[in-house]
Amino acid sequence: MPIELAARKAAVLGSSESMLTAGDADTTGEVDIRREVFMGIDLSPLGAHNMRVPGEYGVEELAGHLNLPRLAGAINAAQQGGLDFVALNQDFHIQAAAEQATRGDDSSLDKQLAVGAQRPASGNFATGRQPIASKQSANFLDGLKAAAKLQDLIPPATLAVEIPLAAASEVFSNSALDLKSCREILLPLSAADFPSAEQLAGFARGAVARKVQLSAVITEAELLQNKSALLSKYFQAVWCRSADIEGIRRGRISLQQEREKNSAPLPIILELGVAISATLRAAEERLVLIEQLTQRPAFSDIAAVIGTVYDAAYQIEDYIKRGVADGIVFRPASLPTDLASIMRGVLPLLQERAKGQKDLPLFRY
Predict the structure, then answer these.
(1) What DSSP state is assigned to residue 29?
(2) How far is CA 74 from CA 41, 118, 283, 339, 361, in A?
(3) Exposure check for the chain: N or C terminus, fewer CB within 10 A?
(4) What is the DSSP letter of 346?
């Protein structure tokens, strides 16, 4: 269930939200409200990979294959713990690259997707259809493969799965692909190859036909302003994978102004990295260990909070009240440590805070 947190909204009905932060004076005509905030978690780290990662008891383990029961257990735990959805991004894989090279992957879904690789390179952009360029693209559809395998193990319409833009038409048109476990399909967009209105219209029709929500994933905050008309017309939400908080806040205002013309707000979902421990020092030390083991920065491309459950709860409240985002998807530094901290610490803190704000008017999307 979404948590209702305090936010700020312009007092005049129908006007756009103020550019001012929560700390600005109340002479702007703003009023305190409650907003429904949906929260989810990215469980892509539970997929297969070629690197050693921290185990449950501090022991390094090499995960070359997807542990499906473990993933299903984590998804169900997240749902029962109060999170609204679970995400799988393009970094999620069923087999590590080394395993695919030695054993191959000739699943029935791969065979279906391989048909797209044999089609001409020029798709029918008038209907939004374009073929999958190669089997390499199909390898980035492991989230959908896992969703199909999980349909009897998790509640329906639970997963938000990211797929390559080049595979979108094939996914929406292929009735053999089971999307019952999916609530949302995420399409990564960039300024360099932003789709045309015709392509986006085709994707939107495909999503409606398959009964899933279509959401955009952006890494460039300026797209929220530069492409506000297209984003607001064809998507039901925009996920922001960026550390540019001010850029996201300004862009969110542009999107809300665009959507107000149709009386249909467009939620902004902020990807938030979290490394949560009992103390700030412990969280920092654990993050250093994780980065040493994975040999890459944990949160180089997104906003992040490193500290205690109180730090995480405060930061989320601040983002919501300042108008940065309408929802949060947590990207944990490690599992299951951060998943447990979110469910047992962060969410209860936010729920308690929400109880003290019941007298504020509720603003629903």
Answers:
(1) S
(2) 10, 37, 22, 8, 35
(3) N
(4) I
Residues contacting 152, CB < 8 A, separation 6+: none
Q: Say how far apart CA 107 and CA 260 lie, in whole Å.
A: 45
Q: At what angle do helices 68-80 and 142-150 cross, to 10 degrees?
A: 80
| Whether residue 297 has a cis bond before it, omega within 30° of 0 | no
Please provide residue 353's backbone torsions phi and psi, each rounded to the nearest 5 degrees.
Answer: -60, -40
* β partners of residue 274: 305, 332
Instruction: Indicate the residue type of 317.
Output: E
**What pLDDT tens digit does each residue of the chain (365 aa) get?**
566 565 655 433 333 343 333 333 343 445 454 567 889 999 999 988 755 555 544 544 556 688 999 999 999 999 999 999 999 999 899 987 655 544 554 455 555 544 443 443 334 433 343 444 444 455 678 999 999 999 999 999 899 999 999 999 989 988 888 899 999 999 999 999 899 999 999 999 999 999 999 999 999 999 999 999 999 999 999 999 999 999 999 999 888 887 776 656 789 999 999 999 999 999 999 999 988 888 888 898 899 999 999 999 999 999 988 889 999 999 999 888 999 999 999 999 998 887 766 554 444 44
Strands (E), 111-191: 159-162, 182-189
